[in-house]
Amino acid sequence: MYNILTLNKIAKCGLDKLGENYAITDNEASNPDGIILRSYNMHDMELGSNLKAVARAGAGTNNIPTDKCTERGIVVFNTPGANANAVKEAVIAGLILSSRDIIGGVEWAKTLTGDDVAKQVEKGKSNFAGTEIKGKTLGVIGLGAIGILVANAAYTLGMDVIGYDPYLSVDAALKLSRHVKKVNDPKEIYDNADYITIHIPYSEATKDTINAENIAAMKDGVKILNFARNGLVNNDAIKAALASGKVSSYVVDFPNEEVIGVKGVIAIPHLGASTEESEENCAVMASMQIADYLENGNIVNSVNFPACSLPVSGVGRVAIAHRNVKKVIGQFTDALSEVNICDMVSKSKGDIAYTIINTDHEIDENMLNNLKAISEVVDVRLIK
Q1: Active-site positions?
Q2: Which of 30, 58, 171, 255 is the most buried (most CB within 10 A)?
């Protein structure tokens, strides 16, 4: 029996995927084998001794102490692409809201009274006129699951699209419309885009990606959209640019006290992935990934460990989280010298690595202790 702690409300259709071999609770004192969460902040949370995996029902994992988990051999999963369509639709809405003063018009219409509302509408509607997105240029920074959908959708709406992503994978490139111009320098986006939307993870390296220097290189009146993460756009820089007119609109799905109420800011209360379909997709994906890891030792879509899967076969199976150093595999085979290894896979990600070994014989406690005694080993799990 595996104990799973949920730190946010997780869609039932996802939790149902776990089956009868799982006990699900929202009691933080449960010392669970796995945690499934959405936006709950885990940084001040004590990580229990039984914890083996954390699954984020969403893409971003900055609310999870990933480094601390890695040191403990705890695998952190996310669900890339599960909420991509929901965010894409929100970005398209953001493009239109930044171009047409629909929000201002709706708020004004609420104030109309009397028997001549239709006449008032015709007289005052010109105050809320805007521009169309068709024929304009959109720059997309980050061509992952969401960025690609945004780029392709914008093209079908008649926009010229420029995309930048130095880490664009082959699989992602195949999904990108051939009409999207891929560039090797974000300066080409800053120089040419009427709208810029950012879709990259937040980290120390990406913090303030949109800053005063980059804004200065943009076209006058540019519109900037941030449906990715707070911290990617520098608040002081965006406020100064809005005040000067350099930026005509800033649409942000992660508003904070520094930008709320600022003229030109369209603050959306983190609704990008808030659809029933998205929450269900993320819950299903997170649940299936954590179950495959707990039951089989397979890793798919981890942010701190390498993707590593192996079909279950043989009599014994062990999964080893370890440091990525030379000759460590030889130490594993030495520790298991009393059994025949019938299959093995080992993958690395930076300084960390992960190995799964199937054997034709039972793996006993003495062999497990030999594996645990290897200095480079972070964690060992006997799967069967």
Answers
A1: 229, 258, 270
A2: 58
